[in-house]
Write a structure and sequence with these properties.
This protein has 297 residues and is of the alpha/beta class. It is built from 7 helices and 12 strands. Bound molecules: S-adenosylmethionine (SAM).
Length: 297
Amino acid sequence: MIESGSQCGDAIAAERRAATRQDRPTWNELPVLAGPAVMNLPSPADALAWRPYDESARHYDAFVEHPGFRDWIRSLESVSRSHGRPGPRLLDVGCGTGNSLAPLLGLGLDLAGCDPSPPMLGVARRKLGRQVKLTQAALPCLPKLGQFDVAWALNDVINLLLDPGHVAPAIASLAANLAPGGLVILDANTPATYSGFFAGVHTRRRSGRTYEWRGATASFSPGGLCEADLSVTDQAGATVGVRHVQRHHPAATLEAGFSHAGLQLVDVFGQDDLGRRQPRIDFSRDPKVIYVARKPQ
Ligand SMILES: C[S@@+](CC[C@H](N)C(=O)[O-])C[C@H]1O[C@@H](n2cnc3c(N)ncnc32)[C@H](O)[C@@H]1O
């Protein structure tokens, strides 16, 4: 059962409906989903960031397939252990099709996930089975989903907050879902990502489909918005085109967010393309920086 989270009230639900295309499948038409489609998305601006996932969910996994992904997720779980996570309950915010949860199945963890996109959650449900609780909910105003020992948001999720003013409330809503001593873990894309992969042209042929990614931002500036077009053509020649939009959030914005939420930063490190920890952070070289912060006991 995928549940719906609602905390931000009727106005937000109305904004979500207004921001939702009329011709996409409704919640009840989706094959493996059940339950009402109450949404807590804070603003139509953020809908620009999640809508591409609604529209291309069935093509997502083949596009992002990477031999090192499972190890990346497991390495971050091991980072949580090295920082003394108090227990086994882990919430994956922006879980998408479940790739940031699937590598943790069978490790004795108590897993839950949430995402604003019903089609992404539908794929996750098929992948994860019934043992993982999934909820339709979004940053920056998560409902109370439980008391977790780790709440993480991985693989671009924080950069999908297009309003920089949403970073602090988003981190606060992750913190509100933590038990005392629990950890927030998130990755943030750096200028190296936005002037590198995001701005480039990449063609991938996978699972009988052709993916073309084309950067669409004339010039990147720190703290700015970045856009790219992704088109997917399937074996029958049908093409789906979506525009991805993200915002770069500088380290100072994130650090202020952790501090505002009353969390203590316990680890910050850069990673290379394969998710390997770097000895020191270089924002112009490392595509991602990982932040680990603890809620006081
Ligand atoms: C690049 S995917 C990453 C999915 C998953 N974490 C993974 O590692 O495969 C980004 C996900 O963030 C979700 N998302 C977009 N805006 C969000 C928001 N405001 N709050 C939470 N999730 C969001 C999208 O629907 C999408 O599933």
